[in-house]
Every structure is written in structure tokens, then in C-alpha cells.
Amino acid sequence: MSVEIRVPQLPESVADATLVTWRKQLGEQVSRDDNLADLETDKVVLEVPAPVNGVLREIKVQAGTSVKSGELLALIEEGAAVSAAKGAAVSAAVSAAAPVESGNGAAPASAAAPRTGPAARRVLEQSNLAPGSVTGSAERGRITKADAVAAASAASPPQAQPAALETRAGRVDRRVPMTRLRARIAERLIQAQASQALLTTFNEVDLGAVQELRARHKEGFEKKHGVKLGFMSFFVKAAVEALKRFPVVNASVENSDIVYHEYFDIGVAVSTERGLMVPVLRDADALSFAQIEQRIAEFAARARSGSITLEDLTGGTFSITNGGIFGSLMSTPIVNAPQSAILGMHKIQERAMVVQGAVVVRPMMYLAMTYDHRIIDGREAVQFLVAVKDCLEDPGRLLLGV
């Protein structure tokens, strides 16, 4: 009996998706819950699982095609088996008749191969590595992107780059379509700049007290909570405290109204191969330092493995981004609309500072806050940033709420 494989129900805010790649080929044996294909939306990558055991009998949609919820993708012959010879013959016929998909021709994972996320699979394919040759470190042997990258680094020499698409007098241009996520990022950034009156204010913060506190408690913190004590939890806590003092920074514009959010859902920017994602810490004011660090670590791992959900990325009343991890000394972040402000962290750099009349070396960081000047005045923006600075230079304020 033939079983139809259709596009899963897409999230309400997602109109369509792109079928990025088929993970199984025509004539190949599949097992229930095997991932048949990857669908990329403008926010997340979705998998298309096999509902039954059988053989992939027919592919209706080629890679690179835009699809909608419920659209027919393929047919599986339930309970069928295929011999190696028949499978090879079918594959050869398909190769001759079907359009060639992009990629380097890495063999698809077998039904017995360990489970991998979309990001890990891409790394393995680019390195011509079979999932079965990699040991997964996650639960039940699942291969993470880190596992795939490590295996690719240990493998022999890197593959040659894809052939150039255009040449001019010996100089090469390589044309690559934007991913849906990258296109969506571009669209949102342009929209934010076109629809908001963006302005950036700067300050600097002495992180000596935070560094001393981390150094004193990091071992005990990690031993007790199973996660490292980073800087981000301090910044989230400081931002929440400042947002409580200046509610308009936590507000958004809706038509001709200002919507004041009486909760604190903080977006934390995470960089991935596919682009920047901003998962949201819900009710950040109610979270402990440990809970903040744990959730950020979970978000980062899931974003980079391709398993983050649309719900994780939806909403948010204020965002924080850290360009300092890449070495940025100063930047002007763009607001994540419809939010009205974003805090930018930067590289910690030792500088000579005058403290109580003496020149001393201190670990300094430039802070930047970009805000929508339509509803946030310069006075409020500057005072907000000063409040963040005060909380970080005297972390005891975060515990005492002063």
C-alpha cells in the first residue's frame, strides 16, 4: 500500500518552506521516524519523518522547491523491501531522469545510522562522511554539530570547492542563493531601519567587580548547577533591573499606541552557520543566574544543531547581543522589531582609567544601546544605560534590588 508523505503543518506565522534536501533516495529502504527531508522556513529547519516502514517509491518535489502545508512530497510503499540490485537500478534511472541536486554527492544516511540534526548532517555531507562513522555524544548517540565538526577536522584533506558559476578574465564569482533565514534576517533589518527612528547611545562599564565575583565562585557555581557562570546572566539581570526603572524601553509601538509590557522576555542573540537567531528567555525577572545560564546554553546548542523551535524565537520585549565574542570593540546594533531597544555588549579590554585621582588598569567594555526615538527619549535611553552600568559595576545591587 502506498502512503503519502506530505508537508507537515507549518506554524501559523509561516506561509511556506523550502525543501532543502532529500535525506533518502528513490528505491531506498526507510524505517518509521527516519528523516526523509529537511524543510527550511525563515526561522527554523523542520524534519519530515517517515510514518511507516517501507521503500521510498516516488518523489514528487525536487530539492530547492517552495512548498506549503499539506503539499504532497513523496510516496512510500509500506512494508516493501528492495534488493541491492533493484535499488541500484532505480537510483541509476532516477539519476538519469531527475534534476541534479546541489551538494557534493555524499551518500545518504542509512536507516540504521545514528540520528543527526540538520546542521550536523550538512557538515557530514560537506566532508563526505557517513553518519555511521561518527560517534555521537548526545543522548542515545545522537550526533551533534560539534561531533560532526570534530570528525570533519580529523578526516583527510578538505574537499575541493564547488565549480565557479561565473568567470571574468580568470577572476571567479560564485553565486549562492540566500537561505530563507538569511533572506528573512535581511528583510527584518531593512524593515526595522525603515519603520523606526533608530538612534544609538554609548557608555562604558568597568567589569572588574563582575570578574572578581565570577573568579571567586565559578568552580562552586559550575559544580552545583552543571553550567559555567558567564557574563550574560549578569547582563540579563542588569537589563531587567534597568527595564523596571524605565518601562518605556520595554515597550513597543502598535499603530498609534504604545504597548507597555509588564513582563520581561529577553531575547539573547545566538550566532549560527545559518545566521543570527534570537531565542527568548521568558519571564527573565523570575530566573536565577543558574537558570539563565542553563537556558542560554540550551538555546545555543539547539540553534546550532537546527533543533530550535519557532516558539523559542517568538516574542521578546528587549534583546541583548554580544559582538565581543568575535572581537568587536564597538558597534551599533539594530533593534529586533517590533521591540524598541537592544543592548550591545562588546570586547572586554584592559585600559588605563583614572580612579579616585590615580591611573589604574581596568577591564573595560563599551556598551551600546540602539533605541526607537519615536517613544524613547534620549534622557531615558542614557539613564537606562547608566542603570545597567551601575548594576554591573556593583553586582550587589542585583541581589538587593537597589
Shape: globular
Number of strands: 21
CATH class of the largest domain: Alpha Beta
Rounded Rg = 25 Å
Give the overall pLDDT as a whole number: 83
Distance between the termini: 69 Å
**Percent helix:** 25-40%
**CATH third-tier fold name of the largest domain:** Chloramphenicol Acetyltransferase
Coarse structural class: alpha+beta
Number of domains: 3
Q: Could you give me the name of the CATH homologous superfamily of the largest domain?
A: Chloramphenicol acetyltransferase-like domain
What is the annotated CATH architecture of the largest domain? 2-Layer Sandwich
Count the DSSP helices.
10
**Unreliable runs:** 83-111, 156-161
Strand content: 25-35%
Report the major sheet. 7 strands, mixed
Task: Explain the overall architecture.
The chain contains ten helices and 21 strands. Helix 2 packs parallel to helix 3 and helix 6 packs across helix 9. It folds into three domains: 1-102, RNA polymerase II/Efflux pump adaptor protein, barrel-sandwich hybrid domain (OB fold (Dihydrolipoamide Acetyltransferase, E2P)); 108-158, Dihydrolipoamide Transferase, CATH 4.10.320.10; 181-400, Chloramphenicol Acetyltransferase (2-Layer Sandwich), CATH 3.30.559. It has helices spanning 84-97, 118-126, 145-154, 180-195, 208-225, 232-245, 289-305, 310-313, 378-393, 396-400, and strands at residues 2-6, 17-22, 29-30, 35-40, 45-49, 54-59, 66-67, 72-78, 166-168, 171-173, 198-206, 252-254, 257-259, 266-268, 270-272, 275-277, 280-281, 318-322, 341-345, 349-355, 358-372. Helix content is 31%, strand content 26%. The radius of gyration is 25 Å and the shape is globular. It is of the alpha+beta class and 402 residues long. The strands form six sheets. Strands 11, 14, 17, 18, 19, 20 and 21 form a seven-stranded mixed sheet that branches. Strands 1-8-6-3 form a four-stranded antiparallel sheet, with no helix packed on it. The longest helix has 18 residues, at 208-225.
